[in-house]
Amino acid sequence: MGDWLYLVIAIAVLAVALVVGLVVGRARRTPSAPPAPAPGLRTPPPPPAPTAAPTAAPTTEAPAEIPVEAEAPAAPAEPPAPALERPDGTASRLVRLRQRLAGSQSGLGRGLLALLSRDRLDEDTWESIEDTLLTADVGVAPTQELVEKLRTRLRVEGGEDARAVLREELLTLVDAGMDRRLQVSGAEGRPGVVLVVGVNGSGKTTTVGKVSRILVAEDRTVVLGAADTFRAAAVEQLATWGERVGVDVVRGAEGTDPASVAFEAVKEGLDTGADTVIVDTAGRLQNKAGLMDELGKVKRVIEKQAPVTEVLLVLDATTGQNGLIQARVFSEVVDVTGIVLTKLDGSAKGGIVVQVQRELGVPVKLVGLGEGADDLAPFDPGAFVDALLG
Q: Which regions are flagged for Low complexity bias (predicted)?
């Protein structure tokens, strides 16, 4: 009995062991299901298996460097230098002189010819002729002189063409025999030095630029001196004129002593072998003593290196008697050798040419005909008189 009991217990234990072994083995062969993803999330697909690449043999050498030239960005292309302007020559300027003057001054000539062509030249007619000349700024003394000559030739001599007589007498009045050449050449290898004076607003700085264009058109080398240092705008304006025709401009800081700038300009002209140096000056007219001191100093400093060959006084032709007052002041301060009349094309008062020449005893050498860069021409008495007569 006892043996059978032990046998039954042993068989039961063996059966339980077999069942447990079968369950564990099956669990190992069956893969477990993946856990459910959390709500709102997507499980990304597994990445593809990497493709086996041939393994390179390890090396201890540093990788080759890229040349610096290859890495540097290409330099930006420099903008082309602006083409220098080629100013008009003297011939074309004289043609323009005749055209402009004929348009603005012919009223004076037509008025005189209409009066002189009357059948009877009585006192009222001669008085009208005087009024016409005075209105054109010819001046009292030149007007009386012209009227007396016309009276003699047309009333006493008679039989002459009024237009031919008037032309001849006007040429005498303008003094066609005056030397109107610009003195822009120096001696002994030194440049000619042109000092340009005049009140601010008369067109002085613009005239300096235009004169430089005339000289460049004649194949002369030029240096400009921006000695109007009290006006920054004048210095910048002159620099612009220089850039347009390839002319060097010597300048200083605002407020620099004008004489020092003039000195450096002449020095550069000497060093570079320039033909001409043109010096722009300040045009302040607060008092004559101050103006005299400043311009006198500029001229003295310049002449330590080279003599001043020309002093040009710039006058606005439209200012009439005010222009004459300015002319007197400057002629007392510096030795004016020539006159530049600006804005002559816009004024019917061409008689200022006669009056200012009589006042100063120096010739009008240049006339301004407009705002264009080449609208400055040598004064030609014949062209001027012909333009007056239309």
A: 52-62
How many CA atoms are closer than 13 Å to the CA of 52, on its beta-carbon side? 1
343 is in an annotated binding site: yes
Structure tokens, 101: 């003057």
Find out whether 149 is annotated in a ligand binding site: no
Determine the Cα–Cα distance for residues 211 and 220; give it in Å rounded to an integer: 11
Length of the chain in terms of residues written: 390
* 269 annotated ligand-binding residue: no
Q: Is 209 exposed, middle or buried (0-12, 13-18, 19+ CB in 10 A)?
A: buried
Residue 198 assigned to a binding site: yes
Assessment of whether the complete model's pTM goes beyond 0.70: yes
List all residues 6 or more positions away from 100 whose beta carbon is below 8 Å from its beta carbon: 344, 345, 369, 370, 375, 387
Residue 31 pLDDT greater than 70, yes or no:
no
Class of domain 192-336: alpha beta
Domain ranges of the chain: 93-174, 192-336
Confidence of residue 190 (pLDDT cuts 50, 70, 90): very high
Interhelix angle for 162-174 vs 352-360, to 10°? Answer: 40
On whether 172 is known to bind a ligand per the annotation, the reply is no
Phi-psi region of 380 (alpha: psi -120 to 50; beta: other; left: phi over 0): beta
Closest CA to 198 of 8, 325, 13, 23: 325
The answer to whether 199 is annotated as binding is yes
32 is annotated as contributing to ligand binding = no
Reported CATH class of domain 93-174: mainly alpha
Average pLDDT, the chain: 79
Is residue 366 predicted with pLDDT exceeding 90? yes
